Amino acid sequence: MSENILVIGGGPAGLNAAVMLSELGVNVALVERDSFLGGNPKKFKYKFLFPDMQPADNVIGELIKKAESGGNIKVYYSSEVSDFKENGKKFDAVIKSASGSETKTFDSVIVATGFEHFDPARDAKYSYQLFDDVIDIKDLERMMGENNFVRPSNGKPPKKVAFILCVGSRDRHVGNQYCSRVCCTVSVKQAIEMREHFPDCEAYIFYMDIRTYGFFEDLYWKAMEEHDVQIVKGRIAEITSGPDNTVVCKGEDTLLRGPFEIPFDMVVLASGMEGGPQSPEISSKLGIELDEHGFLKPENVTLSPFKSNKPGVFLAGACTGPKAISDSITEGAAAAMNAYTYAVKNR
Amino acid sequence: MEYDENGVSIVPADLKKEIFEEARKDFRYEEYVRGCLNCGVCTGGCPPHRFFDFSPRIVLQKMKSKDPELIWTMMDEYVWACFQCFTCAMICPFLNSPGGVIAILREIAVRRGFESAKKVLKPYSRVLLKLTAYGNQLSPDMIQPDFFPDWGPHIGYASTDLAVKRKAIPMPTLQVTNLAWDVAPETMKELYDIFDEAGVFKIIEAVDPSLYEIIQDIVDDVRSS
């Protein structure tokens, strides 16, 4: 008889875990809260992925296709784990969906519940939702994805756009002290895309530190050298409205200009990643630990980042902290291997 | 007082070190000075930064440098440019308080009767007198064109015929111009005790000895009444 493994969350990490387990002949129950697979990349219509600008569909679409055609995966759409109990070394879970509730016993569990984009409206200084032309990186990603890159205020193409880094990250006021890791690279990527498709539009990036770690640094240099993106050291203190329907970024250029007030047609906020309401929810439901940042806590952050504190329950992807899609996919595979080993040992 | 080519007063290195140690020992220091990544949000949002060469980011950075020489450069005029609006403390992502650091440094300058403190506080001697001696901050007779240019073009008119204008106020007043309201002697005595305990009189003695004498005469009169 083959193993039964529960995967919670159908984003990059959960999808890859499910696909790999399916290939091992495991019966996978993939529980997804949305009516579609693909997680945040799908939900917010990410278009091109860093570092190589390949279409997101090559990655997410591919994983979804494999998951949906994998014979051993049963996908539960618009569903949740409503009850969870340990049963010896196994687990009894109730999966609740529109078509009713189903109780099943699983040999092991993978939690891949992901992250939420920080809501920039929570930090009033950025005037998000106050001015139409202040958007965030997920909004821009969607606009680019829909080939609709115009100023929301008047439907015209912008001539000058600012990217503001560290929105909702590294800020004790909003309660997020951590770095969200990918927003620098995403912003640099978006600035390059923008300059490629709309060469008339100037791009500015306001930063405290630019953290395009590892090979992502190539994009940072490329933005400067090939696309003439203006990179200014200074975090924005306030966004106000300016003359001629502009939005004004106010701050201190700590290296060159000193205090500045620069009008822009559009401002893009690099909002960070949060554990979201699902993290504490799944933490209490499954009896696994939450960390001080609001994400799920690995048993050992270095030795076993894919294990929860509860034997048999494994973690994958951005539910344990901000990370790139590639990292989530890697962790999906690592969690799959560990969940499989646990299931086989306790058969 | 002699000044170097950068306009910084020349004092012994030991004094600079003492000032730094005094600031660091302040009970608020740990709360006000945390990490700083030079993001510039504080300075970007700082109102006096629009008018003067004053940057809360520099204040915090100099404090964090723990270099007595650097900290001393702020003690002459720099600390007095701050409006003490605490916008910096409100918006700093690290929850630093550059405005709070300024408050600590100013208090040191006042306690020690530094020249800069004397100069800055001079225009306030009338307020200090009213407040410490009578428990009033502002009274009608203090309204004079020279002292309140920021009150607009009608200050000249407002400062004449005070006694008549006072009578025209359609609510009970003391009908006097040297006080805004009456403070009972018992209340005054309590106020003096508080000022004694808090070291307020000592501070006034350090920054304005002649004002201190005037105030003490009044205090003695009230206390012995």
Explain this structure.
- Chain A is built from 8 helices and 20 strands.
- Chain A is of the alpha/beta class.
- Chain A has 2 domains: 4-115 and 275-345, 3-Layer(bba) Sandwich (FAD/NAD(P)-binding domain); 118-272, FAD/NAD(P)-binding domain.
- In chain A, the strands form 6 sheets. Chain A has a 5-stranded parallel beta sheet. In chain A, strands 11-18-12-13-14 form a 5-stranded parallel beta sheet.
- Chain A is elongated, with a radius of gyration of 22 Å.
- Chain A starts with a strand and ends with a helix.
- Chain B has 2 domains: 13-112, Fumarate Reductase Iron-sulfur Protein, Chain B, domain 2 (Orthogonal Bundle), CATH 1.10.1060.10; 121-224, no CATH class.
- The interface between A and B is medium-sized, with 21 and 17 residues.
Pick out its properties:
heterodimer, A: 347 residues, alpha/beta, FAD/NAD(P)-binding domain, 2 domains, five-stranded parallel beta sheet, 8 helices, elongated, B: 225 residues, mainly alpha, Fumarate Reductase Iron-sulfur Protein, Chain B, domain 2
**Low-confidence stretches of chain B at least 5 residues in length (pLDDT < 50)?**
none
Task: List the strand order in the largest sheet of chain A.
Answer: 5-2-1-9-20
Taking the sheet with the most strands of chain A, its summary is:
5 strands, parallel
Strand content of chain B: under 5%
Q: What is the total domain count of chain B?
A: 2
The CATH architecture of the largest domain in chain A is: 3-Layer(bba) Sandwich
At the fold tier of CATH, the topology name of the largest domain in chain A is FAD/NAD(P)-binding domain
CATH class of the largest domain in chain A: Alpha Beta
Q: What structural class do you assign from the helix and strand content of chain B?
A: mainly alpha
Radius of gyration of chain A: 22 Å
How many strands in all of chain B? 0
Overall average pLDDT of chain B = 90
The tally of helices of chain A reads 8
Helicity level of chain B: 40-55%
Gross morphology of chain A is elongated
